[in-house]
């Protein structure tokens, strides 16, 4: 008979290995960046096999990139049949090929849609440049109200999330996508947010906000905020309705998630309903999003939040959540050791502040705290941030695996360009 202590140790080791094996390793396939690469069934099959060999368990196929064009035959949205001079073969059923071939390799296949994005401003392409220019975000800059299509410093031509017509359109697309692909395992919503704190200040938003607060806004948008000069630069100065505006925008996104979940589950009750956001929660209110659990008392920690803001935490609405721990610094200690941040912080709502939470470790831990186990959480990494430092990338992947329920890697194109499949294998043990 085996002594009790060695048996207990063996059981603990086996349990640890099982838990590690159960963690998802997700690889994202961006539509624009990989358009030519993924325009044949053979190529799709090749990269799925590479993914499986590297220890990837889940893949995310971007089928509605930021232009608002889609990669399935839709009666609502235009088809992305060409990108940068390359055409998609007419006989290729793009997503269905991923589903069929992915399942052969035992991969879980999710489709990603960029919900409230409708244009690529660097190419002047998208639905805001075509059939729906009136849906684009109106941003309140220090120079005045400006259509987002005119702000070329922004590559993503965002829509107004509060617009009921926009919401109905996106829900129709979500339903259509799932219905057309009954073998699809999951959907991951991306860009379910505002462009930034400067959006949206259209007349549609004004009327909806007035309805929410139950009164007319005397001075719009100045009662939300105005611009004043500080050291010669324009600075936002909060107005009397500043906090209510933040609360209302979070309610818009929350209520959309309620409707999106109902729509997805009605189309396929087994579908995995997922979401991606950035991990920088302290400033994510700037894009109108409260991705925390509704049990997290936001107003106790953050001065910009009303007590009601807590109600619009939507983590409980998700079956799967992945958050971008998009920092070069892996450990919390590295934040204090480095003199400058190695990776530029250019994502929407991202802070330039120096803090342990702005590391892979710190952001992963904080995300787990905020979501309170409402849904499995995968720590996400942006491969490009690690430049040529494979060891740092490996450390970052391992940190996500250790601190969250798994790992999300963005994107395939960067793994291929660097040939870093072996780096993934080091973490997955394949």
From TrEMBL:
Gene3D superfamilies: Glycosidases
Keyword line: Hydrolase, Signal
Protein name: Glycosyl hydrolase family 10
DUF4985 domain sequence ranges: 300-425
Lineage of source species: Bacteria, Pseudomonadati, Bacteroidota, Chitinophagia, Chitinophagales
Keyword Ribosomal protein: no
Superkingdom, natural source: Bacteria
PANTHER family: GLYCOSYL HYDROLASE DIGH
Annotated organism of origin: Pseudobacter ginsenosidimutans
GO terms, molecular function: hydrolase activity
Stretches assigned to the Glycosyl hydrolase-like domain: 52-274
